[in-house]
TrEMBL record:
<dbReference type="GO" id="GO:0003677">
    <property type="term" value="F:DNA binding"/>
</dbReference>
<protein>
    <submittedName>
        <fullName>Helix-turn-helix domain-containing protein</fullName>
    </submittedName>
</protein>
<dbReference type="InterPro" id="IPR010982">
    <property type="entry name" value="Lambda_DNA-bd_dom_sf"/>
</dbReference>
<keyword id="KW-0614">Plasmid</keyword>
<feature type="domain" description="HTH cro/C1-type">
    <location>
        <begin position="17"/>
        <end position="71"/>
    </location>
</feature>
<dbReference type="InterPro" id="IPR001387">
    <property type="entry name" value="Cro/C1-type_HTH"/>
</dbReference>
<dbReference type="Pfam" id="PF01381">
    <property type="entry name" value="HTH_3"/>
</dbReference>
Amino acid sequence: MKAKSPNAIDVYVGGRVRLRRKVLGLSQGSLAEALGITFQQIQKYEKGANRIGASRLQRIAEILCVPVGFFFENDAAVSADIDARRETNEVALFITSKEGLALSKAFLAIEDANIRQKLLALTRSLGSTSVVENDGDGSNQVETT
């Protein structure tokens, strides 16, 4: 018998739970304890393997200090086709990574808007370079993509 794949909406909602939990610096265990469930259940919610009931989602929203609608928001126009949100999911995965969260917090701590713009320009230029090779004579050549 073929295993049932998670519903795209459940995966999206679970990803939003994970995103907010990580932004707040909460562990799966601490969220689970506040809900009176196991951290394994939180893992299942965040992966979309298990659906989150309405009352539990309301409680999660209270713990994470967001409105329930937060779990259904998307920066792009609202669409019935959740699969079209892959890019948003990639950004969410980055933001919830250790490096992504640290980078985001550090960037937000920069008060000077001009410096933030220059850092963004630098980051974009670094993103367009794929390989830095040493010629053997001490000089480096950058191969761009």
